[in-house]
Amino acid sequence: MRWRRQTWQATVPEHHDLLASLPDAIDRATVAKRAACAADGEAEAVQTFVTAMVWGYGPGRVRRLPYRPGADGEPASRADVSRGSAPCTS
């Protein structure tokens, strides 16, 4: 799926570097590769979340979700993601 990098960078500027590193077209494999590292820590979990949202959600909606540090119900702080036996190769 092609996505609008500049729109995302303007909407969630705190993830500018991550968004700059993503390919022009995002697919399931791109998200899966990022997810392999999600359980390694909070930063990796947030990067996985943002990558998945780029793949299938709008930037305005992501800005309103409580995933940022200190937000109530923040999923990244729990690191409830399992990568199984897949190696982390971000």
What does this structure look like?
The chain has helices at residues 5-11, 16-21, 28-35, 42-56, 59-64. By secondary structure, the chain is an all-alpha fold. The chain has a domain at 5-64.
Q: How do the helices and strands line up, and which of them pair or pack?
A:
Blueprint: H1 5-11, H2 16-21, H3 28-35, H4 42-56, H5 59-64
Helix pairs in contact: 3-4
Average pLDDT across residues? 77
How would you classify the helix and strand content by structural class? Answer: mainly alpha
| Distance N to C terminus | 20 Å
Q: What is the share of helical residues?
A: 40-55%
Supply the number of helical segments.
Answer: 5
Summarize the structure.
With 90 residues, the protein is mainly α.
Features:
single chain; 90 residues; mainly alpha; 5 helices; 47% helix; 0% strand
